[in-house]
Amino acid sequence: MSENLAPVVLFVYGRLTETKSTIQNLQENFLAKDTELFIFSDGAKKEKDVLKVKGVRDYIHTVNGFKKVTIIEQDQNKGLAKSIIDGVTQIITQYEKVIVLEDDLLTSRNFLNYMNQALDHYKNDNRILSISGFSYKDCIPRDYPYDSSFGYRASSWGWGTWREKWTEVDWSVKNYADFRFNLFRRLRFNRGGSDMSHMLSKQMKGKINSWAIRFCYHQFENDMYDVFPKVSKITNIGFGAEGENCDFKNFEDEIDTSDKASFVFPTETKIDPVIVKNFKKHNSLYVRAKRVFTRIIKKDL
Q1: pLDDT tens, 151-185?
Q2: Which domain, by its residues, includes 194?
Q3: d(CA 88, CA 137)
Q4: What b/e readout covers 21-42, taking b as 16+ CB neighbours within 10 angstroms?
Q5: What are phi and psi of 235, to 5 degrees?
Q6: Degrees to nearest 5, angle at CA 98 with 176 and 173
Q7: Helix or strand or coil: residue 70?
Q8: 66: which DSSP letter?
Q9: CA-CA distance, 255 to 49, in Å (whole number)?
Q10: What is the pLDDT of residues 3-54, one digit of tens each?
Q11: Neighbour tally for 153: CB within 10 Å
Q12: CATH number of the domain that 202 lies in?
């Protein structure tokens, strides 16, 4: 298996503590020494970030423990969305598949095992757009016989995909005008969470800059699923003032602490309505309202 492992593409900016934790956890993966690591370092957006970016760059040039480490430093700031779209495209044109991380994600020791096995298992399944390393706690019942299930919402927290599927994504969302006022399609898109149509609207109005919601829209448009694990292989440590797209953690999570290195995947590619319902509730209107309320209270304390 080590001869056909997907490279890991890691995106960093100016968070030295989080970057160190992310890389140190990745170094402890069972397959780290057999895996190529590409690190994309974005340029500073503001003058106050120059030293932070330099600190991260000084550190990543010391990283070892992988089959090979390649560092790509940007002279100018691209922002997270463009960095990921351009960076993944650059690497995936050279490889059949990639695994993608950001600088605030801790991985289980078997993360690379799970991701590579899932990428190999589903590479010829046209219904699957991506493999997710993250899963909400207790989304999948404990007595569920497989190590993964399927969902309508691709995750941006530790994920993987294949060249032929990534290159088909329409990042400009050319048919948005047809979607915008189509209530049926908007509700159907929201099967992955009640916030999805609203996020896409904000993206198209330029109020946010998210590659992930456009990736999810492509998934919806092509009636595709993502694969996510029974027990999460990822936990996010980036909820704070310096996080670009999220600043409050509104759920319980857990990370796989087992030494399990071989995984069993469902025999059929089909949605389990109970599991999808469990997943969707984490992005429900109630949970999002609770998140906003808690954020207000935290700022007032």
Answers
A1: 999 999 999 999 999 999 999 999 999 999 999 99
A2: 2-300
A3: 28
A4: bbbebbeebebbeebbbbbbbb
A5: -135, 145
A6: 5
A7: strand
A8: S
A9: 31
A10: 699 999 999 999 999 999 999 999 999 999 999 999 999 999 999 999 999 9
A11: 27
A12: 3.90.550.10
The pLDDT-based confidence of 240 (bands split at 50, 70, 90) is low
Residues ≥6 apart with Cβ < 8 Å to 196: 153, 189, 190, 213, 216, 283
Interval 248-300: pLDDT, tens: 455 456 899 999 999 999 999 999 999 999 998 887 665 655 555 555 454 44
Per the structure, the count of domains in the chain is 1
CA distance 259 to 76: 41
pLDDT beyond 90 at 55: yes
Q: Name residue, tokens 């509730």.
A: 281
**b/e code 45-64 from CB counts within 10 Å (16+ = b):** beeebeebbeebbeebeebe
Neighbours of 162 (CB within 10 A): 21
Tokens of 1: 């298996």
Task: Tell me the whole-structure pTM to 2 decimals.
Answer: 0.92
What's the pLDDT at 245? Answer: 46
DSSP per-residue letters across 76-108: S---HHHHHHHHHHHHHTTSSEEEEEETTEEE-
d(CA 197, CA 217): 9
